């Protein structure tokens, strides 16, 4: 046996080949080549990427058309019904001289038999698991080794499992075939109401060869934070070693500041003296906690963005032998924070009743959550590079959002996602991967889920960004909706298996929530007074007008939204030059919109609010403003319900959805190509540190079924409306500011009335500022429809810094519905000075949307966009990356873009 040596971790990322399985697997195994001959081996394609997926490979060799264009999705359906083979030929010098070898598969999608040098070594059936297999060092210690992966059709396997276990319900038909519930593969692959059916397969995450004599088989880092008011940080580290453990004599542990690498603490533990390693029979030993450090005053806490620094540390652990040779090394970046999900009685009822909070508290500070739901950013996961993850999460952060919910029909994201969230201070709500279905609970299924949960909780628990593990997406809600609450076998999983794993493996504890949504009595997942809700009565469900969002909130709204069309360049991408189809209701547009009943639903919302148009560009703009108006109102109204201690009636809202997995018309606020829609910017303004809000209520509407913000016309000579004005701040100090209200009458264009008040914003909550009747000029000549009334009044609100006059927040409230508003010609003055754009106007302008003329290599990053501008309130925005390109603009009343 060779002498103890340093462990090695080799990624098997070279010399991969692939092909469709066209002969029996035993023949494939028999005919597999050795390393030298592999490149020339007939019938095999050289893989272009590793890790990889079959569609990605087929695309790269030009065998299939791009499924994201036109109707091509339908031309590639055959792939999901076939079986596919990948092999890798390798030589490992480390494995040749190490007594222990392990192969670690970080992710196999999904039904995969693995053969090592001809022997079947693994039968995988769960894409979310990390499979580890020990291999006989002699078996792998050859000059040439071959690892063969045989991927079976998940679609077919799902059908077979369904035959065995029975057909169940799983969402509507645009959420894929219900047989998907039996397979632990990303559920959106079966198609979703924003995604195509693309059943891919392959080794989608790296495969490692680990060679060692003795190693650290587990390092459990517990970065704890003691109770308030001091929130003292402490670190415990537990270790397990395995292999030739008698060789392991010492372990060195150090804690460094991740930013400047300064050493915070270190310790060497003599394992011999501890008497822990005397049992040579054992191959693995749990050494327990080798470090218990009190670090008060030595380390700083990690905070979510907006509440403090994202201080991170690195733990280094090295295992040594007798002669002080390193046997194994380990490092992990961590942060110190305490996170709690607070569900406690509110002190007074609100419009929905009393109930309990659903709010997040980090290091003792309660924080309003404004964030997004996240779906996988591509139908082919291997195409999402680290740079793309960073670009997505940067957008989220720059959009003032502080949480991302990883939705249950996708995947557990790779480490890089959580690393970036740690760095940026973005909290993560992590769903376990179940969505919209009656999942089973037979023994093998539960065992697989338990292993999957353990793998992922162990992988993720050290990230300070992880704020919540959640059992599933909408499984309770759907079963309730179908009226058969007794019939959800997977309650065993959501109510016992998963919470047990989270409780057993996380310390400090990470909160667990059974499902999203989950709350009220008897699973009343729509109860606005308990738990979280998904608000789908706007756009879907009862089809309520978006203007009713203020009365459709809840303690935490973890999903709500309304779709819009993406940037016209994204539409042109899927049209690929097909001019005949370049109109809003064409077949190709329908192929790229999967939202249930989208034709009727768009018709309702567009018809109620906008002037219908046959012009595609105008239509796109209108759908985008529709989305932007709707969802920004929801954030504005719900953040108002963060009313301070004991009155946190709304603890947060997460928009459905941040992103897309292909070019599509969907609920996303940023499209597949990372092009923000107007909603991205208007949400960012609602989630800024300070905001100001206005809610107009028309007091003389004839019919009660209209939204209270809508004006109606008829016999009234005047129509009154009241406004309520409030502000919010995230600051932990209360502050004195000026509130300025400007009333601009579109009919009379008489000089604006301006009111200025000194007000105090209470810390970390909303503050009601005033309530008043809208002043309107009764003596002016009769206006719109023969009336002079509040209908013609546009109201601008600004919060100004008392000393410097700096604008802290602004909001403009327009009369509605917009289809009745005769938007004035605003007489805009737009000055472009490098990347700085200055906007002034003589009359109010709504939804001022900037874009650029020529396509550049990179899109422009707008610091703000979709502006509402009032006369006398110059706004300055920045167009990063403009590089001299001409600017275009559109606004309500002039929806087709004009070049400056
Ligand atoms: C939600 C999600 C998804 C779906 C979305 C839009 O409830 O959980 O299932 O894509 O609705 O319908």
UniProtKB/TrEMBL annotation:
Indicate the segments forming the Glycoside hydrolase family 2 immunoglobulin-like beta-sandwich domain, all copies: 299-337
**One of the protein's GO biological processes:** glycoprotein catabolic process
Question: What Enzyme Commission number(s) does the record list for this chain?
Answer: 3.2.1.25
Pathway(s) of this molecule: Glycan metabolism; N-glycan degradation
The answer to keyword DNA repair applying to this record is: no
Query: What GO molecular functions are on record for this protein?
Result: beta-mannosidase activity
- Catalyzed chemical reaction(s): Hydrolysis of terminal, non-reducing beta-D-mannose residues in beta-D-mannosides
Q: Where is the Beta-mannosidase-like galactose-binding domain?
A: 44-205
Q: Which residues form the Mannosidase Ig/CBM-like domain?
A: 722-820
Q: Which InterPro entries match?
A: Beta-gal/glucu_dom_sf (IPR036156), Beta-mannosidase-like_N2 (IPR054593), Beta-mannosidase_GH2 (IPR050887), Galactose-bd-like_sf (IPR008979), GH (IPR017853), Ig-like_fold (IPR013783), Ig-like_GH2 (IPR006102), Mannosidase_ig (IPR041447)
Pfam families documented for this protein:
Glyco_hydro_2 (PF00703), Glyco_hydro_2_N2 (PF22666), Mannosidase_ig (PF17786)
Keywords for this protein = Glycosidase, Hydrolase
> Record's family?
Belongs to the glycosyl hydrolase 2 family. Beta-mannosidase B subfamily.
**This protein is called what?**
Beta-mannosidase B
